[in-house]
Specification:
461 residues, mainly alpha, Ribonucleotide Reductase Protein R1, domain 1, two-stranded antiparallel sheet, 18 helices, 8 strands
Length: 461
């Protein structure tokens, strides 16, 4: 492999001649062969926006030649189009604070900008990664800013997917509005409900989770860009912060604003923990809903069998005709993974000391991965499961009529003890609640039929 020699403060190394990254990136690759995982493309795009905004602000303030800023901006535009995706090679588990990833970005931008200015890749004759691309910046203000931008850019697809899932559940709520079934509490017979009401409740839970995610994400618009190393703004022009954030706000159309306190924004990862917590709650709701669907579709002959989920693939390599609730199972697994991501984010968020929390790379990876998993899982859940659910109406109604909890309706008329006696006898003999209450002359047939009608009992109040 052809190589070139680069120098940093620790000495020299041979870097692949074709690489746009440089010596500091190479050191990180050698030092951290940990997982094979990379920080998400959203982080790359966010950093490209930051570098472009920084260069423009520094040029406007006379700190960086406009020719240099233009080359940096062009290089960043190419990164935003995905041209150099293969050049961001640092493992997600890397040096604290994200310095390795940050220098990976600085070196790629510098090398491409030098090419655009007519210099040889790796020479840094015109532009240098630390002095020019990184002007008025530190990992400590750019990395948390990048996480904030990346999460905000990843938010609309997640919100859209959550809305799709909510709409799918709402559609089933309307479709199944008149399907009466046995309610269940403690997995035991409970009073009758409507299948549509169950799906309506799922839709509302999803809507509430979405509102929480959106509300929590609002805090991410407060940026500590311009705080540099510890939130004092050292080495940054007083006007730099406002110009850079104004450019980011114009390009992204996000409600970005300077931090109220640069030091607090640099020290604290609390906003990320709060967003992760909202994602955790959504994951818990998804797990619960998916497990309900697995129960309701269990069987089909030896379980609840009240609904049929779409048959999208064979369920067994040995049992012919078996179809499993595969999408609901996937949703469970995604939910469990997101819970793990949240534990990691929470653990990292409390691990800061004094002016900096160095655990930012693992927060970035886990937060963005949770958002991606929930986005994709929600969309698949809506399109390949919820929308195709069919109610087994006759089976639902049969269970509703057989539920021992119908005896609950008798309480005001014959008393709790008499109703309990009827329920126990029904369980022992197999006779219906309605037949027994008439047989024991506790109520006439017409009144019993009306009182114990599951359709009437399951109406909304």
């Amino acid at each position: 492999m052809a190589t070139r020699v680069e120098r940093d403060s620790l000495g020299t190394k041979r870097v692949p001649a074709s690489a746009y990254y440089g010596i500091q990136t190479l050191r990180a690759v050698e030092n951290f062969p940990i997982s094979g995982l990379r920080l998400q493309p959203e982080m790359v795009r966010a950093y490209a926006l930051i570098k472009k905004a920084a260069a423009g602000a520094n040029a406007a303030l006379g700190a960086l030649p406009r020719r240099h800023a233009a080359a940096i901006g062009r290089a960043c535009d190419e990164i935003l189009r995905g041209r150099f995706d293969g050049q961001f090679v640092v493992d997600a588990y890397q040096a604290g604070a994200g310095t390795s990833f940050h220098m990976n970005v600085n070196e790629v931008v510098a090398n491409r900008a030098n090419e655009l200015l007519g210099a040889r890749r790796g020479s840094y004759k015109i532009l240098r990664p630390n002095d020019h691309v990184n002007m008025a910046q530190s990992t400590n203000d750019t990395f948390p800013t990048a996480i904030r931008l990346a999460a905000l850019l990843a938010l609309p697809p997640l919100v859209d997917a959550m809305q799709e899932l909510e709409a799918a559940c709402r559609g089933k709520a309307r479709q199944f509005a008149n399907v009466v079934k046995a309610g269940r509490t403690h997995l035991q017979d409970a009073v009758p409900v409507r299948l549509g009401r169950e799906f309506g409740a799922y839709a509302l839970a999803i809507r509430k989770a979405r509102a929480s995610v959106q509300e929590t994400a609002k805090a991410l618009g407060e940026l500590n860009l311009g705080g540099t190393a510890v939130g004092t703004g050292m080495n940054a022009h007083p006007g730099y912060r406002g110009l850079a954030i104004r450019a980011l706000r114009a390009w992204t159309r996000l409600p970005l604003r300077p931090a109220q306190d640069l030091m607090e924004r640099t020290q604290s990862l609390g906003d990320f923990a709060r967003l992760s917590g909202a994602l955790r709650v959504y994951a818990l709701e998804l797990i619960r809903i998916a497990n309900d669907l697995r129960l309701l579709s269990s069987g089909p002959n030896t379980g609840f069998g009240e609904i049929d989920l779409p048959a999208i693939q064979p369920g067994s390599s040995i049992m012919p005709g078996k179809v499993n609730p595969v999408v609901a199972e996937m949703v469970d697994m995604v939910g469990f993974q997101v819970l793990g991501h949240d534990v990691t984010v929470a653990s990292a968020a409390q691990a800061g000391q004094l002016e900096l929390n160095v655990m930012m790379p693992v927060v970035a990876y886990n937060l963005l991965q949770a958002m991606r998993l929930l986005t994709n899982a929600s969309r698949v859940f809506a399109h390949r499961c919820i929308r195709g659910i069919v109610a087994r109406r006759e089976r639902c109604e049969a269970f509703a009529h057989r539920s021992l909890a119908l005896a609950t309706a008798l309480n005001p008329h014959i008393g709790y003890l008499n109703a309990a006696m009827i329920a126990k006898e029904s369980l022992k003999t197999g006779k219906s609640i309605q037949a027994l209450v008439v047989e024991h002359r506790l109520m006439d047939a017409r009144a019993a039929k009306r009182l114990l009608d599951p359709h009437r009992l399951s109406r909304s109040v």
